[in-house]
Each structure stands twice: as C-alpha cells, then as structure tokens.
Design goal:
Elements: H1 15-39, E1 52-58, E2 61-67, E3 71-75, E4 80-82, H2 89-96, H3 101-105, E5 128-133, E6 138-143, H4 145-148, H5 152-156, H6 172-185, E7 193-198, H7 223-231, H8 249-273, H9 298-305, E8 313-316, H10 335-339, E9 359-367, E10 373-381, H11 386-389, H12 407-410, E11 417-421, H13 422-428, E12 429-432, H14 437-440
Antiparallel strand pairs: 1-2, 2-5, 3-4, 3-6, 6-7, 8-9, 8-12, 9-10, 10-11
Helix pairs in contact: 9-13
Length: about 450
C-alpha cells in the first residue's frame, strides 16, 4: 500500500501511531473498492470484495492488522499459533458467549464474513490491529483462506515453515511449496502466502561514563566561619536551643496495631460461626476414555498431505492397544452408505472384515460433498491355513469386538471389493513397495 511506504523511513514510531496509520490505509483501500463497485453499479453478491492481512515492522515491534478471514500465524521451533481471529459469524458468536466455536462453525452461515473490503461503507469497518514484540527467532506466516481452510496450516507447518526458523534458508521455495499443497488440498479458493523471518542479532551495549555518578554535595560551613559568627554575638545574650519537633510515629504504630488486632478478632469470630462443610465422597467410576498413548501425532498430518496412489498394495495389520477397534477395516458397498454410520465405519453386522495380514490393492478414489476422502479396495489374498481356523484378532475379547457367527460371513475373500475411509486405511494398514506373486493373488 502506498499509504504505508513512508512509515518504513520513519524510525522510533510508537505502536499507537502505527495502529492509526494501518487502520487509515485499510479504510482508504475500502473506499477505492467501494467507489469502483458504485461506479459499475454493482449490488448484493455482484459487488467486488476481498480480505486483508498486513504486517509492518517498526523495531523492536511488529504490528499486524487484518480484516476478514485472512490470517497471520507465528511459527517457532516448537509451536505454531494463530495470531488473528477471523471476522466471521462463528467467531462473533463465540466471542459474545452465545455458543462454543465448534458449535457455531457448524451452524448455517457460520462461516459467512461479517467484515470485508469493498462491501460496506468505511463507517461500518472495524479493523483489528495487534502489536507484538518479537524477541526470539521465529517466522511470521500471512495467508488467505485458500491455505488456512480445513486446518491445513496446522498439518503442514512442521514439515514446511518450521525448517526456516533460526537459519538463513531462502523463503521463496517454502512459500511455493505451501501454495502447491494448498492448490492440491484446497483447490476451491485463491491462495496468497507471505513469509517474514525474524533472527536474533548481537547488539553492542552502551559504555557507562568513567566517573562515578554522585549526587551534588551539600554546602558545609567551614569551622572558621562558624567561629566568626559566634564571636559576633553580643555578650550577655542568652541563646536557647530550639527543641527538635517530635514525629508521631509511636501513635501511628499503636493505632495500626490496635486495628489489626480488632480485624483478627472479628475474623476469628466469623470463622467460628461458619458451618463446617460436609464431607463429600468422590464417585469413582470407569469411564470409556480412549487411550491415546503410543499413537503417533504425525498420522493425521500424513493422511492429510500424502496421496494414496491408485494401484498401490497395502497389508492389513493386527489390532493392538495402539490400533483401536475403529481402525478395523470393513469393506462397505458404497461411500454414501458407510458415511451415514458413526465416523464413516461400516456396519459391523453386514460388512465383512479384512483379516489381519490381508493384501489389498487400491482400485479407485472418491471425494464426497462433505470433503471426506474414500478409497476402493480389492482383496488380493488373505491368510491361509491355520490363521483362518482360529479366531481372528479382530473378534478377540481383548479387542472389544463381537463373537463371530461364521468366518465365511464376516471375513472377506480374495476378489471382494469395497470402500473405506482414507485415514482409516492409514490407521489399519501399511503400504508395500513390492509384493510377491503369492501376495498379489488375483490382483
């Protein structure tokens, strides 16, 4: 913005002045877009509009202003947190205390913007400006909602932006990588990315003066001058010593001690008259809380950022404490039927289970309207011989499953096909680089 360029040449600017200039620049941009809309007689949804996020460095501070749902993130070596708060209906409802953010985000129109450039007159705009003191190596990430939608920044920053913290690597390749990932994962909207790095630098401390700083000494009358003044007093004159005024410290301390004693006595009487609370025995119960220990935190990030290629082979793993029952793979006839069940897991009484050790092949992929990804699997081979004669791990009592009625009814056979959620495949199977002819089977 032309309005902000002169600020780069003015040192020692206060955060208040910078905040005023940032708000003024946003208002001028809104006036320009609104005038263009009015000149072209645009109305309602035909009016041009946009969002904005801008960062201005004025050492040792950085001021961040935004309007709409464009965001600013601060990335350090261990954390990444969102600095700005979106100007949408869900954030407003949560800020006013009308609903929790997760509830408001699923309301009809929860993602609609309440502020944007070019939509309304400048008198209805309230840009948000924050001033931060950056005192450690970090990275400032500015982006539009084309990258931040569906929490893509939270999934991508450990593998992209964190590598730039504390070093002098080029920023452009990482910015281009973020744009490519956003186009692949959030291709429904435009993507704008800006990166700003802050590095710690050694500064020279000012040198103190060599002479010690002393207060100005009071003028002391020499003894010779005192003798002269005393000798000038006429003989026979009586000089009375003026008594030093006494300060009432004793009375003040005595009054304070008496007041404290009175307050202590009143507190003791009040405590004696209070009823003692009844003892409450806590209720101890077993709650069905999921054990998250041992589960890798990168699993969801890998499921969001890595493609499952069509034609790849996967081997189903066993159910362990780190692999809960929800990761047992069941082949659903269609993604729509499986999506109607809890968390997209197929019905336990109808759809067959892939036995532990099965080799499956990815036949096709599909993304539903709710942005959930599904893959179609073909069973290539299953464990043979002794493993099928025993009770599979999927139905053991330790896994919390249900007893089998018939292995042929509940276990898949080679050649069967069905659909599973993409991230369920990550939780229950492992990709194979090569397969033997026996493993490939009929595939």
């Amino acid at each position: 913005m032309e309005e902000l360029q002169p600020l780069a040449q003015q040192p020692d600017l206060s955060p208040t002045v910078v905040a005023q200039r940032l708000k003024q620049a946003i208002i001028l941009a809104n006036n320009a877009i609104s005038s263009r809309n009015n000149d072209e007689q645009r109305s309602a949804r035909a009016r041009m509009g946009t969002t904005v996020v801008v960062a201005l460095v004025h050492f040792p501070y950085v001021s961040i202003a935004h309007l709409g749902d464009s965001r600013a993130y601060r990335v350090s070596a261990r954390t990444c947190y969102q600095i700005t708060l979106d100007d949408d209906v869900a954030s407003r409802e949560a800020h006013l205390g009308y609903a929790l953010y997760q509830e408001a985000a699923h309301m009809p129109g929860g993602g609609a913007l309440i502020q944007a450039l070019g939509i309304n007159d400048s008198g209805y705009l309230y840009p948000t400006v924050q001033c931060l003191c950056v005192d450690d190596p970090s990275l400032l990430l500015l982006c539009s909602d084309g990258l931040s939608d569906y929490d893509r920044v939270d999934a991508l920053w450990p593998y992209t932006a964190r590598t730039l913290v504390g070093n002098s690597m080029a920023l452009a390749p990482v910015a281009q990588q973020l744009i490519q990932q956003a186009n692949r994962l959030n291709g429904h909207d435009n993507v704008t990315v800006g990166l700003m790095r802050f590095l710690a630098q050694a500064a020279t401390l000012p040198t103190l003066p060599a002479q010690r700083l002393r207060p100005q000494a009071e003028t002391v009358t020499p003894p010779s001058e005192a003798r002269t003044e005393l000798s000038a007093v006429p003989l026979g004159t009586t000089m009375l010593a003026q008594p030093r005024p006494r300060r009432p410290w004793g009375r003040w301390l005595g009054g304070t001690a008496a007041a404290l004693l009175m307050l202590a006595g009143a507190g003791w009487v009040y405590w004696q008259r209070q009823l003692q609370p009844a003892a409450i025995t806590p209720v101890v119960g077993t709650w069905p809380l999921a054990d998250l220990s041992g589960q890798p935190l990168q699993l969801l990030a890998l499921a969001l950022t890595t493609d499952i290629s069509v034609g790849s082979f996967w081997q189903v793993g066993a159910v362990t404490p780190s692999r809960p029952l929800t990761t047992v793979l069941r082949l659903a006839p269609s993604p729509t039927l499986a999506a109607n069940t809890e968390e997209g897991v197929a019905s336990a009484s109808v759809d067959p289970v892939l036995p532990t050790g099965s080799i499956v092949k990815v036949v096709s992929r599909q993304t539903l309207a709710d942005q959930t990804d599904w893959v179609r699997l073909q069973v290539c081979s299953i464990p043979s011989g002794r493993s099928l004669a025993e009770v599979p791990t999927e139905f053991s009592s330790t896994a919390g499953g249900f007893p089998p009625a018939s292995l042929t009814q509940q276990l898949t056979q080679p050649g069967d096909e069905g659909w599973v959620r993409r991230y369920h495949l990550y939780g229950a199977a492992t990709v194979l680089d090569t397969v033997t002819p026996t493993q490939a089977g009929g595939c």
